[in-house]
């Protein structure tokens, strides 16, 4: 009896503006397959220029999924994405042994590869009470309480971070179970193997690319896009770099020059956070952003 071929997910990560989209299309064409976007800002159909959605030519160059498939008025979170992406991968893997996933939203990438930890709902009053206790008695008392209820959490979480301590305690108190009992096994079983590719460059190059991209967005009509979204500025999807700074400009709080320099600064900070997140991941094989595609393909094929 023939064994089914093993299935692979090629995950392309790295900081914003590094060239992930271009690489994902080349790989999708090479492996004659389709692309899943794990960029949480590109899910929304009303946001286009400011989220650097692939161009119409790029979208035609390979089939894409999870690009502009939701409305900003829909509440959509990483758990929803995990469920939908896994279902989509099951379908795609029926016709392709290899599928490409691209995006710099670390938590969304992790959700597809490893799964998320699920915590039960607990009474909101518990958190209120713990916050009051923190104010009155200080963090040490809460740390001691956690040590009693969940010694494992006490020794593994960021114990000096009051938010983390309260989060762990509210789960212990609300469920009667240790917080750590809800953390998933290191990896959920997946029906595919993930090959993670990271693109990187010297910081000055990343920052230059970001600055150029913001200028290009403005040339392509970013201001008009943001202006049309002004009535929705309080929606969660729009509380994001490139939009919130221009809302401030349209509301008369900033000059245009200041707003654009803030977008560049906040995007650079975002890129720095992305790199911090991805550098902790031992599974990523890093390549310079100018690496020849044939080298990356050789690495990938050696993992099959």
TrEMBL record:
<feature type="binding site">
    <location>
        <begin position="14"/>
        <end position="21"/>
    </location>
    <ligand>
        <name>ATP</name>
    </ligand>
</feature>
<feature type="site" description="Interaction with substrate tRNA">
    <location>
        <position position="105"/>
    </location>
</feature>
<keyword id="KW-0808">Transferase</keyword>
<dbReference type="GO" id="GO:0005524">
    <property type="term" value="F:ATP binding"/>
</dbReference>
<keyword id="KW-0547">Nucleotide-binding</keyword>
<comment type="subunit">
    <text>Monomer.</text>
</comment>
<feature type="site" description="Interaction with substrate tRNA">
    <location>
        <position position="127"/>
    </location>
</feature>
<feature type="binding site">
    <location>
        <begin position="16"/>
        <end position="21"/>
    </location>
    <ligand>
        <name>substrate</name>
    </ligand>
</feature>
<dbReference type="InterPro" id="IPR027417">
    <property type="entry name" value="P-loop_NTPase"/>
</dbReference>
<keyword id="KW-0819">tRNA processing</keyword>
<dbReference type="InterPro" id="IPR018022">
    <property type="entry name" value="IPT"/>
</dbReference>
<comment type="function">
    <text>Catalyzes the transfer of a dimethylallyl group onto the adenine at position 37 in tRNAs that read codons beginning with uridine, leading to the formation of N6-(dimethylallyl)adenosine (i(6)A).</text>
</comment>
<dbReference type="GO" id="GO:0052381">
    <property type="term" value="F:tRNA dimethylallyltransferase activity"/>
</dbReference>
<dbReference type="InterPro" id="IPR039657">
    <property type="entry name" value="Dimethylallyltransferase"/>
</dbReference>
<dbReference type="Pfam" id="PF01715">
    <property type="entry name" value="IPPT"/>
</dbReference>
<dbReference type="GO" id="GO:0006400">
    <property type="term" value="P:tRNA modification"/>
</dbReference>
<keyword id="KW-0460">Magnesium</keyword>
<comment type="similarity">
    <text>Belongs to the IPP transferase family.</text>
</comment>
<protein>
    <recommendedName>
        <fullName>tRNA dimethylallyltransferase</fullName>
        <ecNumber>2.5.1.75</ecNumber>
    </recommendedName>
</protein>
<feature type="region of interest" description="Interaction with substrate tRNA">
    <location>
        <begin position="39"/>
        <end position="42"/>
    </location>
</feature>
<keyword id="KW-0067">ATP-binding</keyword>
């Amino acid at each position: 009896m023939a064994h089914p071929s093993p299935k692979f997910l090629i995950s392309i990560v790295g900081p914003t503006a590094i060239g992930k989209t271009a690489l994902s299309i080349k790989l999708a064409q090479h492996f004659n397959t389709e692309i899943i976007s794990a960029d949480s800002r590109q899910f929304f159909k009303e946001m286009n220029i400011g989220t650097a959605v692939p161009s119409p030519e790029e979208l035609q160059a390979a089939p894409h999924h999870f690009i502009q498939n939701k409305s900003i008025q829909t509440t959509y979170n990483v758990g929803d994405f995990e469920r939908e992406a896994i279902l989509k991968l099951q379908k795609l893997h029926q016709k392709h042994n290899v599928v490409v996933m691209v995006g710099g939203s670390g938590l969304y990438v992790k959700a597809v590869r490893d799964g998320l930890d699920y915590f039960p709902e607990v009474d909101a009053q518990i958190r209120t009470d713990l916050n009051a206790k923190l104010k009155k008695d200080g963090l040490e008392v809460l740390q001691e309480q956690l040590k009693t209820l969940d010694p494992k959490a006490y020794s593994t979480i960021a114990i000096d971070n009051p938010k983390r301590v309260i989060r762990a305690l509210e789960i212990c108190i609300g469920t009667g179970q240790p917080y750590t009992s809800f953390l998933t096994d290191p990896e959920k079983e997946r029906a595919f193997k993930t090959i993670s590719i990271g693109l990187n460059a010297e910081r000055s190059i990343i920052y230059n690319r970001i600055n150029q991209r913001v200028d290009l967005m403005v040339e392509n009509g970013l201001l008009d896009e943001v202006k049309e979204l002004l009535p929705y500025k309080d929606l969660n999807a729009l509380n994001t770099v490139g939009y919130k700074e221009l809302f401030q400009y349209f509301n008369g709080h900033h000059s245009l020059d200041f707003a654009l320099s803030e977008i560049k600064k906040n995007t650079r900070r975002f890129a720095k956070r992305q790199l911090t997140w991805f550098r902790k991941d031992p599974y990523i094989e890093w390549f310079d952003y100018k690496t020849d595609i044939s080298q990356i393909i050789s690495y990938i094929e050696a993992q099959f």
